[in-house]
Amino acid sequence: MESKEESCVYRNPDAPVEARVQDLLSRMSLAEKIGQMTQIERVVTTRTVITNSFIGSVLNGGGSWPFEDAMPSDWADMIDGYQNAALASRLGIPIIYGIDAVHGNNNVYGATILPHNIGLGATRDADLIRRIGAATALEVRAMGAHWAFAPCVAALRNPRWGRSYECYSEDANTICELTTLVSGLQGEPPKEHPNGYPFLAGRNNVVACAKHFVGDGGTENGTNEGNTIVSFEDLERIHLPPYLNCLSQGVSTVMASYSSWNGSKLHSNYFLLTELLKQKLGFKGFIISDWEALDRLSEPFGSNYRNCVKISINAGIDMVMVPFKYERFIHDLTDLVQSGEVPMARIDDAVERILRVKFVAGLFEHPLTDRSLLGTVGCTEHRELGREAVRKSLVLLKNGKHVDKPFLPLDRNAKRILVTGTHADDLGYQCGGWTKAWFGLSGRITIGTTLLDAIKAIVGDQTEVIYEKYPSEESLASSEGFSYAIVAVGESPYAETLGDNSELIIPFNGSDIVTTVAERIPTLMILFSGRPMVLEPTVLEKTEAVVSAWLPGSEGQGMADVIFGDYDFEGKLPVSWFKRVEQLPLNADADLYDPLFPLSFELEEADAQPKNKKNKALKLSTCAIVAVGEYPSEESLASSEGFSYAIVAVGESPYAETLGDNSELIIPFNGSDIVTTVAERVPTLMILFSGRPMVLEPTYLEYFQISCCITTVFEKTEAVVSAWLPGSEGQGMDDVIFGDYDFEGKLPVSWFKRVEQLPLNADANL
């Protein structure tokens, strides 16, 4: 005769998932249901709390460990202890333990730390990212957790945002291609798997979480937890598509965003959470709140908490990352249900979704850690995968000052090299935020290989490597003794709001360190950052080569593999690289797009510098003429193939005496932007009307003495003419540009590169 426990449908692993869900739901009290909707942090978790409050989920925040440098087995002991407490409750519903494994299992000492998403976006390698997901799943499962809060599929629209490095790209199509992390983490569902229904392949996989729904990367001024001001059409076009790809792969959970959409907080937005995500898109998993997100629904934070609970749960939040004040959450939600302010049907829907994921994930059959996986944490295979990811993520921005002299790859048998900079031998800086701690740390914080370690390992036995965190006067004075220098600079670790940055200047005087060395020693600059940073004109002018390494993680050998020539550079820019922060936000779909380096920019070691285009005779019959004060229409630009060429006239407005004093000398009326916008579509002659030399962007390029293709006035135009202020007889210009007469003018003054050079005269010493 079957016991009562054996007759429970929900305990039968062979029963359909939906039958198990409904059977268990029918047996649950209100307290047990609300417990399942509650996620708490490990520091407030005890076995008694789990058993008596029927807690559904536990997590650890960044930097919350059983103890510092706890081994995976220590984590497994802790999590299994929590799980045994859950199994001892009346219905024996297992907890689901979640962790921010956002670039590998980054909270666990000794785990493989992969490049952050911004670097993975540069690889454009969907299969690599799927394999990274599979490796991460093993390392998460090995320490007992079941759920990784990844991937972040935000579209990065402004690099001022402190979560920029969590994004794959600014471009929705690129992000969509790289959502394969979901299939890596969860396993790949069969073709017949219903869209939007949770999926998990087996015990070597973990529940994934697409985040942060939706529009978090598009906030005004790049402010974390800010307001994304876009139409629904643009929300659908820019921010929503990656979620569709995640749903098609059976992503089991979605995390709501702290941010707002047109002033409406996402955590209380019924239209987006319920009507769009759950009803229209058919998502059958559960929506998890972000950390203390309900507290942020009121001003000041944490006030009127009962109402915050009501509006978020009614909007469609299924599980709440409380994470500390769980007693208050449980009390308030219980009271809201009993008063009818939160319908029981809403509670049942939330719990049904949570149970569905737990059954799909196999937690009822295999609730405890599979200790046979412990050896996968930081294993050689995973570190080699990390090394491959680093190699493929590096973006070469400059290679040599001259056409026939590429600087890379470096000579590994050079007699003596200088390695310097704040980031050359700092594993914490190399890994960035969300590594061991929420905001990241400095130093040898885990097991890994720094850039300096990798350089020492790859160079010849006879090569002397001199390392100085900051270049000494002694080394600079003996600069002739160095074959070259490698200078590594960049950002210090940060996370979320701590990373919001309106200036984006390389910290620790990074630009000064680079130029100080580069003025004396041929220099490769390696930039560690979670986003594009200001690249000073002198940096690009003085250095021989520049590489963006993003935040590569623990496997620094991947950098040495490429800069010394064992592998080619493969990375492409995942975002547009601005010239000036005043241009931000700057995205490739903008009407006026004038970046320093465009989206998808790549440069190979042997690439020559941009060609300095020679003037071509303009003898065709049809042209577009844009006069000062008028602007090229979208219609004309769209039909650009119909024009043989364009003549774009820009310049100064009239002035006299003191009214004309000008410290910037930038072409007014967005003149440079107008020129490049037209020149990208139509062969263009630029005519500059001015009473003096003006800034011809970029001011730091010595007539293209830099090996890259930069969107500039010079690079895009076919010809440039200075017409000064010619007066009433404009026919004289036509006479020359159409070939009836030759150009005869000579510059009456020196034309500066940068306004900082002024005054600049031919009799100057420099």
Automatic annotation (TrEMBL):
Residues 30-357 form the Glycoside hydrolase family 3 N-terminal domain. Residues 394-589, 633-760 form the Glycoside hydrolase family 3 C-terminal domain. PROSITE patterns: GLYCOSYL_HYDROL_F3 (PS00775). The keyword Protein biosynthesis does not apply. It comes from the Eukaryota. Pfam families: Glyco_hydro_3, Glyco_hydro_3_C. InterPro entries: Cellulose_Degrad_GH3, GH, Glyco_hydro_3_AS, Glyco_hydro_3_C, Glyco_hydro_3_C_sf, Glyco_hydro_3_N, Glyco_hydro_3_N_sf. It comes from Brassica rapa subsp. trilocularis. Belongs to the glycosyl hydrolase 3 family. The lineage of its organism: Eukaryota, Viridiplantae, Streptophyta, Embryophyta, Tracheophyta. Keywords: Glycosidase, Hydrolase. This is Beta-glucosidase. The keyword Hydrolase applies.
